[in-house]
UniProtKB/TrEMBL annotation:
Species per Swiss-Prot/TrEMBL record: Bifidobacterium myosotis
SMART domains: HTH_MARR
Name of the molecule in the record: MarR family transcriptional regulator
Signal peptide segment: none
Keywords: DNA-binding, Transcription, Transcription regulation
Xref: SUPFAM superfamilies: Winged helix' DNA-binding domain
Length: 181
């Protein structure tokens, strides 16, 4: 990150100053006439994503589960038979954290290990019958809430929201890759 002509790493900045730099860039764009309230809209966008994350974390806490456990359960719900590496890659959780969650599930009889079709050295994670029931009991209410919330939106608004997220995500990734470090 470059701030006032000098190079500063993100580690040298607190979250507030990173947000402040983002606002400064946003204000520069606004002065160029490319968006009257981009910084404000970005704040609203990321604040709403944060509130969704907080709601999901609160749901997990009410169940007595950590965010990591819920994250692994949610991924396994849709991807039974994956490797721990795939779980780490998707959830962005550290290997040790995923290993601890998986070990706990194994101790409780919720999962079993299998061999990968492509590489016998890679162990895949599969739900047992009791593990599938356990997962469904926890994840189904969350998914139901997601479905009901989405169904409250007008179909055109749903499509616009998804289309907007896809376009924003693609452009954000492109812009981030272009940042000179």
């Amino acid at each position: 990150m470059v701030q006032d002509g000098e190079r500063t790493s993100v580690d040298d900045c607190g979250a507030a100053s990173v947000r402040q730099v983002g606002r400064q860039v946003g204000q520069q764009v606004e002065r160029q006439g490319e968006g009257a309230s981009i910084a404000e809209r970005l704040d609203r966008f990321f604040d709403e994503l944060h509130r969704i994350d907080v709601a999901l974390a609160d749901y997990g806490r009410r169940l007595g589960l950590s965010d990591s456990t819920m994250c692994v359960l949610d991924y396994l719900n849709d991807h039974d038979g994956v490797s721990q590496r795939e779980i780490c890659d998707y959830t962005m959780l550290p290997r040790q954290t995923v290993n601890n969650v998986i070990s706990s599930f194994m101790d409780q009889g919720y999962i079993r290990f299998g061999e990968s079709e492509g590489d016998r050295r890679v162990k895949t994670v599969w739900f047992t019958e009791s593990g599938r029931r356990y997962c469904n009991a926890l994840i189904a209410p969350e998914r139901g809430a997601e479905y009901r919330a989405m169904s409250e939106l007008d179909p055109d608004l749903r499509d616009a929201m998804i289309r907007g997220m896809e376009i924003f995500g693609r452009e954000f990734r492109r812009q981030l890759r272009a940042v000179k470090l």
